[in-house]
Write a sequence for this structure.
DNA sequence: GACGAGCGCGAGAGCGCTCTCACATTGGAG
DNA sequence: CTCCAATGTGAGAGCGCTCTCGCGCTCGTC
């Protein structure tokens, strides 16, 4: 009932351990004839290399950690984006024959655990998903000297290459669209300012308005639907004249749509709404939501490629992916 | 720049490797004084055990595979349940100091990969999430003789312990509720019959109706909202008199609600609707959805405990968790 | 035909750890 | 005071693999 070892395969094929090792690892300095004999022995015995033994000597583990840092609000992990990122990253890593070790970073305790684990050299690299400014993990990971990348630009400056979408550019696109449609009083519902998406999308809104001579009208939410509805009510109270609102994510935009309906405003006739993210639900709102799409899968895949590059000794250059305006009926 | 080894710690503490090993592994046959000295050396050097070396000799890896089998329809992985299960299982395993290796089973290729990986003894146990009847993976995993458990009862009989919720009982509860409210013509929108949830919930519906003398009216969907709406339209066409419908999941129930509204039926006045799952959106439908709640997190945690039990040589007994009727406005 | 280059293969060391076993050392009993 | 158990520690083997090194063989060259 024991698993066969290199030794057993070698004995069966009538060669040395070293030769079997060469064949198994695909070196081409082996005579085809011997190679075949070894392959046959491998098949017959059902030999599978012992990864522990292998990584003991190679100092590689062929596995990477996918660290998901859970923000206090839990927005992210309840987000469908969460599964998309994980799935896309997994598929991409699978193609590169890397194992994915999933680690959730919630509590203080789990932080210590992750640091120990990574510092212990149990993984070749780290992918960090953290959208929260106060998160100490990006800095910690960067400090450890292990190849690491971040999904999304870290909210505080940290020497960690990242793959992000162009939040600023996307917000600019959204606001420009509203300006092009002749909207005059364009408000925004911003995201939490301790998350990079929140910061950058607000910055984009401000940039776009600065070019025109409109004044900015800002309410802040926390990326949940409820907060979007609340923010919309505030905005309507502050400036009943507003005729457009750029909302920093679709979930809040859906809340805003609700609030507008309750306030008796027609969308887009009275108030135009543009969201951000293009989540699935954006297609089914009433009216369907105009929004900024960013490629979540591609971003995850790009993150993996960035890490794989690092592992091969490549450069640590951030990647920023473009966004796209999706025009539906709400603006 | 090299990581310290046991040897180094031993040298610094002035003891043997064996003693350091004892301390690190928490054996209590070490004199407190020596123990302290070792601990100090460990701290000073920042020693972290090399897991490859350790599992090479212990034949354990302290990690388990979480295999997510992606059904063709992709319903599951887009489901928020997906993240909930993963999160809950991860947290529970973290508490037991086990590593989580995430594996997606989509293509044929990935199946082979997973089998190789698991058979290769790279993990101590396997957790399988597969809701799809035609999936060969549960059988394959069961055959390998590695400790393994399934989230949800495998759709075909397979010698694999599982943790499931009481789908049949939940459906019975739903239908009984409709009966109690005096509904006379109770239809159902069933889920796909190659998924266990689809089968069992339909069985529960039939069971409950058999006790009364109502006839059953069945349409089948595929757990997506669109299919729910389509099925509802069919049902209304087949039997315009129906006054209630039990829908096998909330997503389809939401679709059904839409279809009913478009058909000019009032909910619950004309037609009562009960869903299944209690997803978050069920609270925000118009009207809020009466549904069957099952504890997803608890189920995932129970699955982990079941596996941990197996790893300790415990018994392989399936667990079935109770469901709960959540009454809102739709029925 | 002699010689050196080059290529394929095997021997053996060693990765960092655990664990068995034998060896002190101590304390209590006779 | 001797002896034996009990207890704590160290020496050393070995987990399964990779990789360096050197040896023997073949082939081309002069």
């Amino acid at each position: 009932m024991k698993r066969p070892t290199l030794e057993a395969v070698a004995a069966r094929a009538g060669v040395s351990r070293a030769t079997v090792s060469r064949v198994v690892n695909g070196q081409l300095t082996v005579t085809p004839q011997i190679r075949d004999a070894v392959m046959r022995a491998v098949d017959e015995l059902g030999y599978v290399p012992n990864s522990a033994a292998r990584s003991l000597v190679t100092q590689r583990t062929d596995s990477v950690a996918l660290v998901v840092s859970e923000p206090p609000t839990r927005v992210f992990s309840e987000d469908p984006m969460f599964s998309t990122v994980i799935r896309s990253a997994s598929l991409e890593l699978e193609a590169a024959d890397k194992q994915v070790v999933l680690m959730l970073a919630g509590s203080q305790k789990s932080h210590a655990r992750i640091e120990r684990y990574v510092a212990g050299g149990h993984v070749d690299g780290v992918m960090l998903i953290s959208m929260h400014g106060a998160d100490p993990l990006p800095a910690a990971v960067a400090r450890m000297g292990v190849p690491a990348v971040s999904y999304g630009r870290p909210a505080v400056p940290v020497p960690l290459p990242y793959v992000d979408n162009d939040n600023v550019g996307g917000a600019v696109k959204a606001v420009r669209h509203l300006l092009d449609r002749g909207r005059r009083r364009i408000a925004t519902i911003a995201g939490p300012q301790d998350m990079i998406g929140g910061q950058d999308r607000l910055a984009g809104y401000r940039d776009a308005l600065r070019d025109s001579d409109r004044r900015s009208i800002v309410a802040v939410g926390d990326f949940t639907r409820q907060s979007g509805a609340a923010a919309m009510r505030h905005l309507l109270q502050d400036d009943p004249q507003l005729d457009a609102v750029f909302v920093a994510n679709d979930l809040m935009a859906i809340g805003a749509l609700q609030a507008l309906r309750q306030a008796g405003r027609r969308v887009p006739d009275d108030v135009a709404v543009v969201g951000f993210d293009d989540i699935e639900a954006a297609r089914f709102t009433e009216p369907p939501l105009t929004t900024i799409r960013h490629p979540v899968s591609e971003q995850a895949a790009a993150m993996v490629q960035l890490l794989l590059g690092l592992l091969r000794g490549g450069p640590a250059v951030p990647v920023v992916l473009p966004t796209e305006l999706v025009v539906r009926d709400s603006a």
Chain A has three domains: 6-49, 63-165+297-322, 167-293.
